[in-house]
Amino acid sequence: MEPRTTTRRAFLSLSLGLPLGAALAACGSAGPGTAAGGGGPKATYWYLSQQPAEGVRRRAVERFNKANPNGQIAETTFQNDAYKTKIKTAIGAGQAPTIIFGWGGGTLRSYVQAGQVDDLTPWFEQNPQVKDRLFPSAFGAATIEGKIYALPIERVQPIVLFYNKKVFDQVGVQPPQTWGDIMDLVPKFNAKGIAPFSLGGQSRWTNMMWLEFLFDRIGGPEVFQAVFDGEKDAWSHPAAIDALGKVQELVKADGFIKGFSSITADSNADQALLYTGKAAMMLHGSWSYGIQATEGGDFVSSGGLGYLNFPPVDGGKGDPGNTVGNPAQYLSISSKATAQEKEIAKKFFATGLSTDQEIDDWIATGSVPIVKGIESKLAASKDAEWLKFVYDIASNAKTFGQSWDQALSPTAAEVLLDNIAKLFQLSISPEQFATNMNAVIGQ
Amino acid sequence: MSTLVTPVPPAERQGAERGAGAGPGRERGLAWLAAPALVVFVAFGAIPLVGVLLLSFTTWDTLGTISVTGLESWRAVLSDPGLPHALWVTFLVMALSWLVQTPMSVLLGVFLAGHQRYRAVLAVFYFVPLLLSSAAIAVTYKALLDPNFGLGAGLGIELLAQDWLGEPHLALGVVIFVVSWQFIPFHTLIYQGGVRQIPRSMYEAAELDGAGRIRTFFSITLPQLKYTIITSSTLMVAGSLTFFDLIFVLTAGGPGDATRVLALDMYKRGFQANLMGHASAIAVILVLVGLALALLLRRIGGGSSSASQLDGA
Question: Can you give the residue range of the structural domain that contains B182?
Answer without folding.
Answer: 80-300
